[in-house]
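Changelog note: in this version the structure field was regenerated for every chain. One regenerated record is shown below for reference.
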Amino acid sequence: MNKDSKNDEGFCVKCGTCNTVCPVYLATGNEIHTPRGNQHIKSKIAKGEISKHYEEIYTKSQQCGACIEVCPRNLDTPE
């Protein structure tokens, strides 16, 4: 992933606004199930650090796009 990419994990300011609308996080209360958590997992996958655990967490995302609507940086986590 391009370090300057808008969708790079480093572009996230970690404000937590996405948590307030993420249906998976609201149901589980687990930080790893937030869009922020998915950004972190995407960065691990991009580095080739893939594990069954990451896959299990990443696939819980609803890919609904609610996080995009509230993100102050318009981070496209579902992409």
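Spot check on this record: The chain has a mean pLDDT of 80. The radius of gyration is 12 Å.
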